[in-house]
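re: the backbone from monday

yeah here it is again, tokenized this time
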């Protein structure tokens, strides 16, 4: 059985507070963008190796994530070094898998790093949607995301809503508005 070829890619680092998220743009016909396993791991407060070891050491968690739609499909990419002395190799996951990983960590494990990342990304995404709407840019891409996430089960949706209510209540320091009461 032959291994998949390593794909050439461009690399950039996205600062997330004290850690960097390594992102890659593949040199393929559709220029797929992916996230490095090392950056995905550290952005959630784990060691660089955590996500790479998860399928073997965190079998139950990995299986639970797969049940939530996480594929775990990894692609190795090659990035040329700026000094021309060769290339480095990175293992990557899709942006959708990274998003599902963040959601799992935030909602199921109550990982503070994931919660902060989820809120920051949601705010950035909302800013983009509103800007696009005002600029007359079609929001078809956003509708596709809605369709994807409506496939959540009722229990998963109720868990997310309950968590959001609890989070909102904690912000009101005991003076909960009627709209947040059950």
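seq for it, each position gets an aa:
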């Amino acid at each position: 059985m032959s291994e998949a070829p390593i794909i050439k890619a461009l690399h950039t680092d996205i600062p997330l507070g004290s850690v960097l998220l390594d992102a890659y743009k593949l040199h393929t016909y559709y220029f797929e963008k992916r996230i490095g396993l090392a950056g995905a791991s550290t952005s959630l407060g784990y060691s660089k190796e955590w996500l790479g070891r998860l399928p073997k050491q965190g079998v139950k968690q990995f299986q639970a994530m797969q049940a939530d739609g996480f594929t775990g499909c990894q692609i190795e990419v090659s990035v040329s070094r700026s000094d021309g002395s060769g290339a480095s190799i990175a293992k990557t996951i899709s942006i959708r898998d990274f998003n599902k990983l963040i959601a799992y960590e935030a909602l199921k494990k109550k990982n503070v790093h994931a919660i902060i990342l989820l809120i920051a990304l949601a705010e950035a995404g909302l800013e983009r949607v509103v800007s696009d709407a005002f600029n007359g840019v079609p929001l078809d891409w956003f509708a596709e995301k809605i369709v994807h996430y409506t496939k959540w089960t009722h229990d998963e949706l109720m868990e997310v809503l309950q968590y959001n209510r609890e989070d909102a209540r904690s912000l009101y320091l005991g003076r909960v508005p009627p709209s947040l009461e059950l």
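Residues 7-151 form one domain. The mean pLDDT is 85.
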